[in-house]
Amino acid sequence: MTELAPPTRSRVLAALRAQRIETASWAFGNSGTRFKVFAQEGVPRDPYEKIADAATVHRFTGVAPTVALHIPWDKLDDYAALAAYAKERGIGLGAINTNVFQDDDYRLGSVTNPDPRIRAKALAHMFECVDIMDATGSRDLKLWFADGTNYPGQDSIRARQDRLADALAATYERLGPAQRMLLEYKLFEPAFYTTDVPDWGTAYAHCLALGDRAQVVIDTGHHAPGTNIEFIVAVLIRAGKLGAFDFNSRFYADDDLMVGAADPFQLFRIMCEIVSADVLKPEAGIAFMLDQCHNIEPKIQAVIRSVMNVQEATAKALLVDTAALAAAQRDGDVLEANEVLMDAYHTDVRPLLRDLRGEMGLDPDPIAAYKRSGYYETVKAERVGGEAAGWGA
Ligand code: PSV
Ligand code: MN
Ligand code: MN
């Protein structure tokens, strides 16, 4: 990398130092496809051990100070005790994810189910998750609904939207003043004909009707191939409705592979929208979370790598020469504008990130440091005969 001018260098380093990436508890447990879950040694046996793994990621990266929970995968009697344990380990508890998709009752949907008894059960779970947020001090309630239909005529599309709106409104009412509701969309799966929240437009329309504390989650794996995700990012930022990302990468559908693995250029383009709108800083309120499954690769190491991938894309976005870009755009110089962006993308930012880690008192190479630490060998020896609930359960 050519030498950066000192003001640029300190601006970029300050932004990277302030960056926050939230890990997910379920990334540390066993997961797989519908064909096979490959069990790994040393996986956490309970939410406490997942927290310990998340704290390990933070210890080596310095920018992942919170971990999201999924209920009931992380069900406990005492969430305040879990929050205290996390604090002891140097991290906090992040978003609370609801789970209204893994129960036989939800065959025809949860909050959009035609049966009012099932809808009430799903709503009660959402309220329970807000109670958990009260105990953990979490700011965000994250909602993803597997609801939809498989066959034309199976149910009324409009009636299901009405039921969804009712459940969201009741949950929104239950939130405290410092709490937010984040609504995630997904094109398809498990429903194959209609999905009740299939796209950002539907999520946006519901959030708009609810109020300021309802915002949209962009899961990068939840779109049709070829979708321009950075366009969605730009539109939602402009509307003040981008609440969070679930980062992961995909080659085909909702692959949940490591972010930045399939398409690092897409991740860069997304981060360019974030940086250019000045919403990278935590105070801007956008949560950058990982929602991934590490089916065949070592999990903690994969989460560390994912954090580093996000940092690399962010560093490149921060290096875009904004003055040169603005001038090229003003002049209508299409190729020059594109080249300014590509120059930043092609910069090798790894030395800069190594320097950042050094300045933060971290090992410049988090993966090597993690491997040297012997953490995995220790937990492998300790954690025998168990497997935490999660996708693999
Ligand atoms: C659904 O595919 C999803 O992306 C939602 O965020 C779930 O809560 C999550 O996966 C669990 O991995
Ligand atoms: Mn997700
Ligand atoms: Mn998903």
Key features?
isomerase, 393 residues, 11% strand, binds alpha-D-psicofuranose, two-stranded antiparallel ribbon, TIM Barrel, alpha/beta, binds manganese (II) ion
Protein topology:
Blueprint (H helix, E strand, L loop, with lengths): L5 H13 L3 E3 L22 H15 L4 E5 L8 H10 L3 E6 L18 H21 L3 E5 L3 E2 L7 H18 L5 E5 L9 E2 L4 H11 L3 E6 L9 H10 L3 E6 L16 H13 L10 E4 L8 H20 L3 H9 L3 H12 L4 H10 L6 H8 L1 H8 L11
Parallel strand pairs: 1-2, 2-3, 3-4, 4-6, 6-8, 8-9, 9-10
Antiparallel strand pairs: 5-7
Bound molecules: alpha-D-psicofuranose (PSV) and manganese (II) ion (2 copies).
Describe this structure in words.
This protein is α/β, with parallel strands linked by helices and 393 residues long. The chain has a single domain (19-320), classed as Alpha-Beta Barrel (TIM Barrel), CATH 3.20.20.150. It has 14 helices and ten strands. It has helices spanning 6-18, 47-61, 79-88, 116-136, 157-174, 200-210, 229-238, 264-276, 299-318, 322-330, 334-345, 350-359, 366-373, 375-382; strands at 22-24, 66-70, 92-97, 140-144, 148-149, 180-184, 194-195, 214-219, 242-247, 287-290. Strands 1-2-3-4-6-8-9-10 form an eight-stranded parallel β-sheet. A two-stranded antiparallel ribbon has the order 5-7. β8, α7 and β9 form a beta-alpha-beta unit. α1 (6-18) runs antiparallel to α9, α2 (47-61) crosses α13 (366-373) and α7 (229-238) packs parallel to α8 (264-276). It is globular, with a radius of gyration of 21 Å. The termini are far apart. Alpha-D-psicofuranose is lined by residues 26, 97, 144, 184, 186, 219, 246, 254, 291. Residues 219, 221-222, 254 line the site of one manganese (II) ion (MN).
